[in-house]
Every structure is written in C-alpha cells, then in structure tokens.
Amino acid sequence: MGNWDLLGQSQLSSILEHSFNQGRVSHAYLLVGPPQVGKRATAIKIAQALNCDSNNKPCGSCTPCNRIESGIHPDIQIIAPTTDEETGIQHIVVSIKQIREMERISYLAPYEGNYRVFIIDSVNSIAEPAANALLKTLEEPPPNVVFLLLATNEATVLPTIISRCQKLEVKSLSEEDMLELLRKSHAMEAADAKLLAKISNGRLGWALEAARNPAVLGDRQKAVDTLIKVIDGDLEEKFKVSQELSSFHNRDRKKLPDTLRLWLSWWRDLLMIIEGNPDLVFNLDWGELLKKRQSFFTSREIANHMQELIETIEYLNQNSNPRITLDVLMLSLEGLSATRSEYAPLR
Asked: What is the Cβ-side half-sphere exposure of residue 49, based on CA atoms within 13 angstroms?
C-alpha cells in the first residue's frame, strides 16, 4: 500500500491508489478544482508514484520521492506563465514557445527516473496556439511521459483536450475536515483553527499558508479595507483604486483575482445576514462590520453586484485589459455605493 494520503481528499486518494495498484496509468490527467485546494500537491504525489523506488508507491521517503518533493528532480517539470526578467512583469499565459520546448523534451528518454512528468499549471492560462500544440502532443503521446494539467475552470479548457485526459476532481474541504487538519498539523488554539477553517472556504493550501504566515491574514484585511474605501468613496476614488489594482496586476497575475474573490465573499456574507442566515457567514471576524452595513443594500442589489464581480474575474482570467475591466466594475459600484446622501461612511 502506497502513501496516497492526500490531505482532505480521501475519495481521490482511493481512486488513485486503486488505479496505480492495477497498473492503469493514463498518459494525461486533468486535475480540476477551485484555487488552492491541493491540485499541485496531487500532481506531485502522482509524479512520486510514477518514479518511486519502493514497492509501495509512492513511499514519500525514497530518493526520487524526496527529490520530487523538493522540486529538484530532473524528470519533473512545471510549466506555468513566466515573468519577464527585464521588466519583472508576469506573463498572462503559457506560451507556445514553452509548449514546443516541453514537446521537444518529452521525446527524450527520462534522465534518471521511470517517467518524465510535465505539470501544466494552469491549463486555463494557456494561449490558444499553445493549446493547439498541446493537443497534438496529447493525441500522439511519447512513451514514458505523463502530462498533468491543472485547471480551476473546466469550462475554459478545450473539449478536445479534456477528451484526451482522465479527469480527477480535487474538491474543497469541508469545514469539519479543515478544522481537524489544522488542529493536528499546527497545534492551533481551537478559536484560531475555527476561524481559519471557516474563512478558508475549503481551500487547504490557503489555510495552511495562513497558519504558517501571519502576512496572509494581513493581506486579507488590506483587501477588505480597500473594498470599504471603494464602497465609501466617490467615483474619483473608485477610479484611483482601479488604477492601483490594475498596475499591481501587471506584476502579479494571481493577486487581483484573489482580491476580487475576497470581495465576493464579503458581499456573499452580507447577503446571508440580510436574508436572516447569520450562521452561514464564512468570515466570522467581519461580523460587526457586516451588521453595520446590512441596511445599506437590498438583496437584489447585492446579488447583481456579485454577478458583476464573477464576470470581472472571468474577464481577467480571459486576459482582458485589467484597467478597463476594473473601471467598468467601479462604474457598476457607483450606483450601489453606500455614500448615498442618507448614509454616512462607516469604517
């Protein structure tokens, strides 16, 4: 029996263990799930199983397993959008140049392991020409090569690519499972673990990082402060925030969508309070602020704005111009702003 204990993913662990024990290894897997739920960790575990020296694969302790875990195994490569060395600006997509280089290397025999493994993170961030080149590789895969494609949104992956992969769902953790894992792995106080389990919204990767690094919760608070500034500010202030966020987006392509998802969570919690379901609030530490705001908006207004936020995140993931996309969002917020004449700003 191998060490297929993927944190919070018991069903997926069982599927992979049974498949590998039966010798049924696909040439390509599509790992689908929300951000930070463990897709890359699952991909690393598969890479270990393919190259493990032990009879019980993956053992997690042999030299290949350790080298893969440390990111130094020569046969394991992660393909992701790169950063321009001169400007420091992060590229939006995986380029066709990267895919062609991957294809070239894939036809070389493994350097020291059993399989070459390519982890594409994420296949949602792949240029159309590159996606077509990847499709050709998947149609005629080289021997002893496995492709692991990570995706947050299956709908934006080419159907022809999906059809050539075995799909694996990596699910968000339940609050109960998250709480248990945090208590065991970090020996946290009950109240702190409960808060992280609640606000993580099932994202194990985020929760573990927040437990290790206090700056994660600090960034979360800054994002909420920015949202309040947007709600309370006039249109000039809203456009100023739009400019700041879009400028930062050029250097870090993940932070802005993460910020908008946090805003979405804030509005969702406010809607829960307005609808009389405070027990369903995720962000327990925002309780007082949310209660102060509940009389400012109607449920319909909040639901419409949440849809605007969802569409904005989708547009950003489709590589739209961030400044224009955010300006449109700010214009939609202007009609929703809490700085109407009958409301005083609340901090």
From this structure: 25
